[in-house]
Design brief:
The chain has 483 residues and is mainly alpha-helical. Helix content is 59%, strand content 4%. The protein is built from 17 helices and seven strands. Helix 6 runs antiparallel to helix 15, helix 7 packs antiparallel against helix 8 and helix 8 crosses helix 15. The two termini are 34 Å apart.
């Protein structure tokens, strides 16, 4: 059954800033600035309320398009190890296809009212949870970890999908349970259970994904006004849950031997004759012989992080990525070597994905790296501004949750590349190569734009009333920022 909010919306043209009907008559009601939002639901069974839908936020659109432009330029520069003799543009073409698909998702999702997205969040979450479990049971090996599914010749990363699904579910839970004093106890408990459940399914897909999901959930709870005492309980629950999951994984060690991810990458590249495209096939053969245990890999990464690296250290399989990433950043200087002039992209493993920020700094210098960081921070700031203006809690949580997911993942990627935190694998949103990541982050942008179009703002009197009439009772909680 279609949502009343969706049924009541119809876009119409404007003349001199005033909305007009199909017959050309001007409507005094829709001429008000308040009409630039959600349409009013009318009592007449066969009559739709005419209203002008607000335009999607131009600032979010601008930031998104700038990131796409940077992605095209920098991925081409960072894909030296993927270039074949036959077609030097093949990596860019493949990535460009996913960027265009992502843009299509943004254009489609931003036209769907956020209420419908919220109603489908649990379906989305169950679907992503099933994919996570399947990847742990029958998934294929990819870059030294069993974390992907192969479908119709394409590789899908369920962990990327699950992060957005969790954000949508948490926004729905917290948005429905917002109270004057903060979020209710029921919302906090339910949200923590959802995160722990997904963490259990994600334990084989990388600890960084688990930590990122937990951080986003805690940020949303804090934004909703959770008391510090309750937050301490949530942190304790996450800590206990994490230790239990880690212990369970230790007791269920795989049959085959352990190996380090960096050493695996170099071995695979050697076997593939330098062809990165053949690495996944070779890795699949290793997976068939037994599941992969990455415990020693994590220990080595943490140990090497605290040990640190120095310019005079010899380059080994264990420190290759870290050393070459530092060389690339040092080579960038203040203004960089220019796009396409990266020296380390041909030597740095995964320069086109997990370490692309180091290539950005090498190409464009400190100024270019700072610009990319600023774009992500501006996206979060704009989302916060829109969330503050929302009258209802649900759209505020949805736009903030999506923005936090994108920006926190970007910050984690940059922190890994610059050596602030131990080595792990996190793509830079929209810029790193990876079809699943590009499509999922594009969906998050679409949700943000949907909120910017359909949520009633605190300056739109008639739109506030229309949104209240259209929303189900459980979604009518007021925005935390208005208390």
């Amino acid at each position: 059954m279609a949502s009343p909010l969706y049924d009541s919306i119809e876009i119409r043209e404007t003349v001199d800033g005033e909305a007009v009907t199909g017959t050309g008559r001007r409507s005094a009601q829709s001429a008000s600035p308040a009409a630039a939002s959600v349409a009013e639901t009318v009592a007449a069974p066969k009559t739709k309320t005419m209203a002008k839908v607000r335009r999607a936020d131009p600032y979010i659109w601008g930031i998104y398009l700038m990131l796409l432009l940077i992605s095209v330029v920098e991925l081409f520069s960072a894909s030296s190890s993927e270039v074949t003799a036959g077609n030097v543009y093949s990596p860019l073409i493949r990535h460009g296809i996913f960027l265009v698909m992502g843009l299509g998702l943004v254009l489609w999702i931003q036209r769907i009212p956020y209420v419908i997205i919220s109603k489908l969040s649990w379906v989305f979450a169950v679907f992503s949870l099933v994919l996570l479990i399947l990847s742990a049971v029958v998934g294929v090996e990819y870059n030294g970890a069993q974390r992907a599914l192969r479908l119709a010749g394409m590789t899908i990363q369920p962990a990327e999908i699950s992060k957005l699904a969790v954000v949508c579910v948490l926004a729905t839970i917290l948005g429905k349970n917002q109270r004057p004093g903060g979020v209710s106890n029921r919302a906090v408990i339910t949200s923590a259970i959802v995160v722990v459940a997904f963490s259990a399914a994600m334990v084989t897909n990388g600890m960084t994904n688990m930590l990122l999901m937990m951080c986003v959930s805690m940020a949303l709870m804090l934004t909703g006004g959770i008391q510090w005492r309750k937050m301490a309980y949530v942190i304790a629950a996450y800590a206990v849950g994490g230790m239990v999951l880690y212990a369970a994984k230790q007791f269920s060690k795989p049959q085959e031997s352990e190996f380090d991810r960096l050493k695996t990458e170099q071995t695979m590249l050697a076997q593939a004759g330098g062809n990165v495209g053949a690495v996944a096939t070779i890795g699949n053969e290793d997976t068939k012989r037994g599941k992969i245990d990455r415990t020693q890999t994590r220990h080595n990464r943490i140990s090497n992080f605290f040990k640190g690296v120095h310019p005079d250290d010899p380059i080994t399989d264990e420190n290759r990525q870290v050393m070459l990433a530092r060389f690339a950043q040092a080579n960038g200087g203040l203004v960089g070597q220019g796009p396409g002039n990266s020296r380390e992209s041909a030597r740095l493993p995964l320069a086109f994905s997990d370490y692309i920020y180091s290539i950005i700094v090498e190409d464009t210098g400190f100024l270019g790296g700072a610009l990319v960081l600023l774009l992500f921070l501006l996206m979060l700031a704009r989302a916060g501004r829109i969330a503050f203006r929302c009258v209802r809690a649900l759209p505020a949580f949805m736009i903030l949750g999506c923005a936090m997911l994108i920006v926190l993942q970007a910050l984690v990627h940059m922190a890994i590349v610059t050596g602030i935190v131990p080595v792990s694998g996190q793509p830079l949103p929209f810029i790193s190569k990876g079809g699943t990541s590009v499509l999922v982050m594009s969906m998050a942008i679409g949700i943000m734009l949907s909120v910017s179009r359909f949520a009633a703002f605190n300056t739109d009197g008639k739109a506030i009333k229309a949104e209240l009439n259209a929303l189900p009772p459980e979604m009518q909680a007021e925005n935390f920022s208005k208390s």
